[in-house]
Amino acid sequence: KRKKGPAPRLTEPELCRVCGDRASGYHYNVLSCEGCKGFFRRSITKNAVYKCKYGGKCEMDMYMRRKCQECRLRKCREVGMLEECLLSEDQIKAKRLRRQSTDPASPAAAATPTLPAKMSPEQTEIVEQLLKAQREVLHPSKEDVEKVTPWPNDSDQSKEAAEARFSHFTDLTILGVQAIVEFSKRIPGFLRLTREDQIVLLKSSAIEILVLDVARRYDEKMDMLYFWNGLPDHHTVEKMQEVFLETLQAYIKTTMFVLVYVCNRADVSDHHTVEKMQEVFLETLQAYIKTTMPSDRLLLPRILMKLTDLRAINNTHCEQLLALKVENHKIPPLLSEIWDVPQ
């Protein structure tokens, strides 16, 4: 199990998949050099638009990468670089804060501002609303759970048993998605968004919230995942473990659900309102942590960094969906609609 940290260094010389220069590691999902890594990051963060002078068919190498930016950016995307892997401004600040705070000699560590030890009435109301929503809608009813396709005997390796196992997991996923839809309606400010933006936020965040919900069910001592029907999955899910490295209080877990919704969703039309929602929830979470856990100054940066891990899991999920289509697994209509998978 590899620990989190910088992109891994390569023991043998490897070539950048964009330009052929010596690669320094995996950046934004692709083996690449420092130059192409920086070029891709700058191009995406600045929303750069380039124009090829040579007809848009440049063969990319170490020479042409300096001559044609349009073809270089296109090659970055063709080989698999993902915009979703870039850190947001909030996540960059959190990462910088975490590094500075771990250095006792850092001026930033000593200059970290202190927040009021008391939450505002508005923030207290948000906390109460989210906790109430979590209690009431994030747990399917017993009747719904009983409708889930039963898990076949583990010794049964027939085609029918394989299909039943697939149906079992898709049934559980449908229950989770339905709960997320109901939970989203309880998020303060969500229903004031246009219907189109509500759908965008729901579609883009559903798998990340499902992962968070599954992570809540992980039993570290038993190394098991417990689902709504009480059946454990004995397989360790390392990525899900990493999302919750520490035991977080209920509100912090719930707020992570909300932050997944409102952070960095580029396809919404009302960016201003979504950004205001993000600001309100971040300030409330910060005040809550300061009030209940004043000694843990690094908790908020750690939480924000976990959003990056969730985005990476989302990217992997998209790849797995394509694999399922290739293997002719039938994905239920609700999940196909949420994840934009053609039937």
From TrEMBL:
Domain Nuclear receptor residue range list: 13-88
Can you cite an annotated GO cellular component? nucleus
Q: Which PROSITE patterns match?
A: NR_LBD, NUCLEAR_REC_DBD_1, NUCLEAR_REC_DBD_2
Taxonomic superkingdom: Eukaryota
Keyword list (alphabetical) reads:
DNA-binding, Metal-binding, Nucleus, Receptor, Transcription, Transcription regulation, Zinc, Zinc-finger
Enumerate the InterPro entries for this protein. Answer: Ecdystd_rcpt, NHR-like_dom_sf, Nucl_hrmn_rcpt_lig-bd, Nuclear_hormone_rcpt_NR1, Nuclear_hrmn_rcpt, Znf_hrmn_rcpt, Znf_NHR/GATA
The cross-references to SMART domains, in alphabetical order and at most eight, read: HOLI, ZnF_C4
Q: Where is the NR LBD domain?
A: 122-343
UniProt feature, compositional bias: Low complexity: 104-117
A GO molecular function annotation here is: sequence-specific DNA binding
What processes in GO biological process is this protein linked to? ecdysone receptor signaling pathway
Q: Where is this region: Disordered?
A: 96-121
Query: One Pfam family, short name please?
Result: Hormone_recep
Provide the protein's localization. Answer: Nucleus
Chief subcellular location equals nucleus
> Which family does the record assign?
Belongs to the nuclear hormone receptor family.
Q: What is this protein called?
A: Ecdysone receptor
Q: Which organism is it from?
A: Branchiostoma floridae
